[in-house]
């Protein structure tokens, strides 16, 4: 027997940067299109971004991970040292979910990388492109291999608490996330590759000569660190430049001003879509959501990984090795040199099949309906 009435879905992206929120936008759109009632659990910054897209939906605040990581030792040590804190956060959000389910009469949960949002009575989806999390110690033959195996085991221990794992990538042939989403052994739950996710659409726009778009994002303090490096160098350039600081919901004043330079704390999706289609040069972090957006728009870019964030370092290297994007280090970053290297790089993006979320979302709603019939 199938449940009558709309399925009530709680969707919650991880509060580490904005990428987890933006890649959920196509999923939310498809859920709404197929008749689900969606409640979004988000941090303040994520809510500011998602509310622009979905002002009609209900938003609730969820406990954050609050990982403000120190510069220099970002992931290799800082995250390892904070594992007890992370485990405490996971336990806290699992308790929060149990209380929220009762209050809001939730039928199912879609969690983008939030390990605590599982519930034994509900159908729960875990979204990640990182099955095979990179520790950054892999080059050290014995220690690195041992650490990576421990992390994989820890990762699967939590993923197995969910009903299904959705991976925003392609199952075969070309993969945008490489070995991150294609490990030798998959987790012990059903795994579905749901294709490349992006809120943007390719448009045939004329490229504006000598124009530069810079997208700054990610966790602090490295977001501000990279911003400061760029602003010091942008003063001396004459390019038509737009900087998007990745700070939705804030009203911070622009730190510098010159003719031909526009700085925004945040831009609506339609305006950002236009800029990404029309700018001659793009500089961005190598977050996976940003990469999916760029590939969807068929745009190459200069990628600058967040120092020490091993996922971004791997993705930047992977894109560079495949000659899909140019990877440049944040250390000693030189804007003029980076753009010169980009022009000489002869980059060519892979041709990907168009993603279609209808089937995975439909299968999800059917499964939830079977479990929650009256």
Verbal overview:
This protein folds into two domains: 8-197 and 355-371, Glycogen Phosphorylase B (Rossmann fold); 208-344, 3-Layer(aba) Sandwich (Rossmann fold). Helices cover 36% and strands 16% of the residues. The chain has twelve helices and 13 strands. It is globular. The mean pLDDT is 90.
Short summary of the structure?
This protein has 2 domains: 8-197 and 355-371, Glycogen Phosphorylase B (Rossmann fold, 3-Layer(aba) Sandwich), CATH 3.40.50; 208-344, 3-Layer(aba) Sandwich (Rossmann fold).
Count of helical regions:
12
Main pleated-sheet profile: 7 strands, parallel
Residues in helices, as a percent range? 25-40%
Task: State the assembly state of the protein chains.
Answer: single chain
Show unreliable segments: none
By DSSP, the count of extended strands is: 13
Strand order of the largest sheet: 3-2-1-4-5-6-7
Kindly provide the radius of gyration, computed on alpha-carbon positions and rounded to a whole number of angstroms. Answer: 21 Å
Sheet/helix structural class? alpha/beta
Give the H and E element order.
Answer: EHHEHEHHEEHEEEHEEHEHEHEHH
Question: How many angstroms does the end-to-end distance come to?
Answer: 8 Å
